[in-house]
Specification:
Helix content is 24%, strand content 26%. The chain has two helices and six strands; from the N terminus they run αβββαβββ. A hairpin with a 6-residue loop joins β1 and β2.
Length: 150
């Protein structure tokens, strides 16, 4: 049975998306894959950016992402603080789709990320303890941008 090149392309892209998240320790990464039936190589970039709260606008939030975050925090609080977690609304949750609304530089290749979209991978928030230094972070939101830089 012969598979169409579009099916192979979708298959390759699905693995590339997973690979992007495997490189969370790097500021940017490149995934290159060959697709059967195509004469060129598909290149996908994943660029991680660090943003201030005021730089981003939430364009999509899934309730299951919010519930997963709160459940994770509930477990963490029991383990770390030996206390029960009280749910409080956050500005951002992992999984939120956001748009960059400020003229900010991400790296040497992306001098202005304004208008780019991506997915929040981490948000440093004040968990209510004085030992928490994250509330003083200038760029508390980590976003994996999903647009291909030119």
């Amino acid at each position: 049975m012969k598979k169409s090149s579009n099916v192979w392309l979708a298959f390759a892209l699905s693995f590339a998306w997973v690979d992007q998240f495997a490189f969370t320790g790097f500021r940017s990464c490149l995934h290159t894959t060959s697709v059967p039936g195509r004469s060129h190589t598909v290149r996908l970039y994943a660029v991680k950016g660090y943003f201030a709260i005021r730089d981003l606008l939430v364009v999509e939030r899934k309730e299951e992402d919010v519930a997963a975050f709160h459940e994770s925090e509930r477990k963490r609080w029991r383990k770390v603080y030996d206390e029960e977690y009280v749910e409080t609304p956050q500005d951002f949750y992992p999984g939120d789709r956001v748009e960059v609304i400020a003229d900010v530089s991400v790296n040497k290749d992306i001098r202005s990320a304004e208008g780019m979209r991506g997915v929040v991978t981490h948000f440093d928030f004040d968990d209510g303890y004085e030992s928490c230094q994250t509330c003083q972070s200038s760029y508390p939101v980590t976003v994996l941008l999903d647009e291909i830089p030119e």
